[in-house]
Records
---
Amino acid sequence: MNYPKDFINKVIQGDCLEVMKQMPDKCVDLVLTDPPYQEGWERIFPELKRIIKDNGQILWFTQPVELYDLPEKPKQVLVWEEPISPKPIYKKYREFLDFIAWYAYGDYTFNKIMWNMMNSRFADEVIRSARIHKWEKPITLMQKLFLIHSNTGDIIFDPFLGSGTTAVAAKQLGRKFIG
């Protein structure tokens, strides 16, 4: 593979760490990802920091219990309030929240799109009949995050592409993606 020609606007199958090792330093504007539960802060975060631009950002979906394991203090923790939780219950309260650890570096992008959307809580819904898998995030949530944290033409990277909503939202909004 040849970066960037073989990476931009492509879905790459493979181990995300191996793919990131092929990417040059400081080549991505925004990382937005929802990794598998308890997947690799300690393994993946250093590579993400290497490929993120000096003014880039990382938005990492995480479970409440994982907040204690963050590799560094985020700028802020955002909340996505799930209308229906697919998370199993094992003698505890059902979790209807996903947290988004927001890391921002340098003179990062922060577009104030609509004041009523400019809070740290999102309540977008996935239409259940349209879901590809049960952990899918709503495309409207991804679009809002892209409109706030990136600009047209920016490169968005999602090392755990899942159902592809990151790529779809990026393409719809004129961003480039690597999945």
Note: Helices lie at 16-21, 41-51, 139-149, 165-172.
---
Amino acid sequence: METITKSLEKRGLTVVAKKHYQAWPQANVERFYGEHKGRFFYPRLVHYMGSGPITAVILKGPKAISAWRELIGPTHLQKARQTTDCLRGQFAISDTKNSFHGSDSIASARYEI
């Protein structure tokens, strides 16, 4: 978490809320990623996100959504590994198990929060 915290600070982002889950309930995971239901990766994504501990955070800062999405980097592992200072490049296991989520808009963030 120290690497992530330092990366957030470097971009002027602050964690305003944080919640740890030992395991995220399956129904919550399915609802959260419901927009992807029917896509080929959905079952793997839902399984992975409910398989172990996660930390959910709410960030604040200048252009927080775009700054966070830039920091986490591309969803595709090979692209992420080619991106400088990209968190997914450092922590992802695969395209589906890419370790991070980032809301794509203010509306999405409000829903996801």
Note: The chain has a mean pLDDT of 93.
---
Amino acid sequence: MRTIHLTTPISKVDDLRIGDQVYVSGLIAILRDQAQKRFIEAKTMGLWVPDIEGLPIFHCGPLAYMDDGRWVIKSIGPTTSARMEKDLPILIRLSGVKMIIGKGGVSRNIADEMIKLGAVYCAYPGGASAFLLKTFRKVVNVYWLDLGIPEALWILEFEDLGPLTVAIDLQGGNIYSQVEDNVKRMLSKLLGGR
């Protein structure tokens, strides 16, 4: 296991391997279901979308409010990526991102699509929102607030966001698949091959 520090924009992730611990500094796009849907629809129709190429996409929704003309973030926690996986390859292709951050991983089929598109998946542990806030620096921009605060597309600045664990790499390494395969083998052994 290696510890790697990256600064956005990120253009190259082919040297990352599953198990690597990654810390990211710079701008990160925060979005989930509704912002992903709007991004894909707008970009497909040739309409304007925020430029997030080279920014990691973090699946989460912040709890935020305005105070004296500026955004205050009270909590940021990862969202289960499986919720966004159906259209995730389309988003990666249209946006040019190379890293997805979330929790729970994605299915094998989506992981295979991500690999073809040159994007890795990094896991951030659920329940660590207070720790994550320590790495948050500022709100740079927010788009599509009509979707609601947690569903908008946010551009936030972080310093050493992490540790993120590379869970799906470009060489076909997939921590989630390894765990699933090990469980199936052990279960088969326990059940005597039934």
Note: The longest strand covers residues 153-168.
